[in-house]
Amino acid sequence: MWGSGDITKGVIWKQLLAFFFPLWCGTFFQQLYNTVDTVVVGHFSGKVALAAVGSTGTLVNLTVGIFVGLSSGAVVVIAQKYGAHRDKEVSTGVHTALLLAVIIGAVFMAVGFALTPWALRVMGTTADALPGAIVYLRIYFLGMIPNVVYNMGTGVLRAVGDARRPLVFLIAASMCNIVLDLVLVIGFDLGVVGVAVATVCSQLLSAVLVLLSLGHMRDKPVQFFPGKLRLSPGPAKAMLRIGVPSALQSMMYSASNIAIQAAINSFGTDAVAAWTAYGKLDVVYWMTMTALSQSITTFASQNYGAGKPERLRRGTWVCTGISAVLTAVIGLVMYTCAEPFMRIFTPDADVMALGVDMLRFVAPLYFTYIFVEILPGAIRGAGRSLEPTLITVIGICGVRLLWLFFVVPAHHTIRMVQMSYPITWILTSLSMLLFYRFGHWLEYHPWSLPENDAPNKAAPAREDAAISQ
Predict the structure, then answer these.
(1) Rounded Cα gap, residues 140 and 196, in angstroms
(2) Does 467 reside within a domain?
(3) At 177, which helix (H) or strand (E)?
(4) What percent of the chain is helix, strand and coil (3-state, nearest 5)?
(5) Given 11, 71, 115, 362, which is the most exposed site by the fewest CB atoms within 10 A?
(6) Within 10 Å of residue 244's Cβ, how many Cβ atoms?
(7) How far from 279 is each of 41, 58, 166, 183, 287, CA to CA, in Å?
(8) pLDDT score recorded for residue 314
(9) What's the pLDDT at 409?
(10) For every residue of 386-424, which 3-state class applies, written as one string?
């Protein structure tokens, strides 16, 4: 059964894969309905509409990355408490996390709606795509609260070993989005507005499902009671201490991607459309690495809370091996099948040729990225979020921005823009390996609590350990 609850004992590779597959499938379905948005507008509303939706992709990814980063703080804190068998503190953390989600979502909704036109203009969105991009993004920001609640709620479920329910919720949301895309775009000819409304409705459905699920987990430490929603200072501070650096890292990632999008925009509408389609294929690798990173973070958090640092280390290298195999397979498939894959997104010959060239350049270089995701996932599971964030921000985001601002203008080609990827991946991987080996990040500390309240390595198993079975 996917998602085994208590993962502080058992066969490591089986437990990691038990987390990975539902996380990957969930991300696949999330990307599926985003991809359907692109396919539907590309084929039924034209390449200007395709460029409009594509131009918003970086900003959408920015918000999602921030929410996932913030929810990682909840995952680590709740998983550590769960691994230490402190059910009352698990419950307190759950209600703190969900209230934080509502507050954060409301702030992003207001700020995002107001700043949308400015942000798109700063990115250099092409004149023909700008009106549609503004409409799409403003509608998207109206769905911020359910978006954040969903991310935080599924983070809570993952923290206690339940990887099945988030997958079910995403499948339901993706099916809702696909149906609404077809009805609103093809049936009612709403174009960009139609796909935006479909996206918001699917996010609302997923948020409702996750809250209903948490509310019906009777006699479980993660059961949700609306009357218990409150910001408890201790858990909130711990979640923000871990989550904010992760969110800032996502922001910096997105800032560098915005700069890349702006560089691509300078090559015209065909290049923007090709980059959009290429990105929908390229994301298969990123969602694979993200699922592995989330798997090792939950694994590391529970084992850290249970006082098992050596098992945490073994899990990290097992996860690295799994990621190496998957990287080789995905890279090979993307390279050899680039042309038929690109044909899915556009019938335009010029756009397709550009997209194939983009994909075949990056696919063989995926292997240089493995340590950038796996090692930070393990380190964050032990409660150390700042250091991997700084390494990533400097090694990937900082160097990439320097490359885009100084090298690309002097050698103005799409290939030179793409070169920013392998250069920064290699630099960051080496830095992360050095910190993992010499950074003393796993010096176990039982949270400075009284001795009789410290995590118990021999803590009895819960009756509710197999939450997702």
Answers:
(1) 6
(2) no
(3) helix 164-181
(4) 80, 0, 20
(5) 11
(6) 17
(7) 16, 10, 24, 25, 12
(8) 93
(9) 87
(10) HHHHHHHHHHHHHHHHHHHHHHCCCCCCHHHHHCHHHHH
Q: What is the pTM of this model?
A: 0.74
Task: Answer whether 296's CB lies under 8 Å from 157's CB.
Answer: no
- Close Cβ partners of 116 (under 8 Å, ≥ 6 residues apart): 59, 134, 137, 138, 141
Domain assignment of residue 3, yes or no: no
| Overall domain count for the chain | 1
pLDDT tens sequence across 224-257: 888 888 888 888 888 888 888 888 887 787 778 7
pLDDT interval class at 447 (50, 70, 90): very low
pLDDT of residue 109: 92
Residue partners of 310: CB distance under 8 A and separation at least 6 = none
**CA 68, CA 74: separation in Å to the nearest integer?**
10
Q: What is the tens place of the pLDDT at every residue in 268-281?
A: 888 888 888 888 78
The SS3 assignment for 17 reads helix
Task: Supply 381's token pair.
Answer: 């599971």
Checking if the pLDDT of 18 tops 90, the result is: no
Distance of CA 302 to the CA centre of its chain: 20
Does residue 106 surpass a pLDDT of 70?
yes
**Measured distance CA(209)–CA(205) in Å, rounded:** 6
Decide if 452 is inside a domain.
Answer: no
Instruction: Give the rounded percent of residues in the chain with a pLDDT score beyond 70.
Output: 91
Domain for residue 4, yes or no?
no
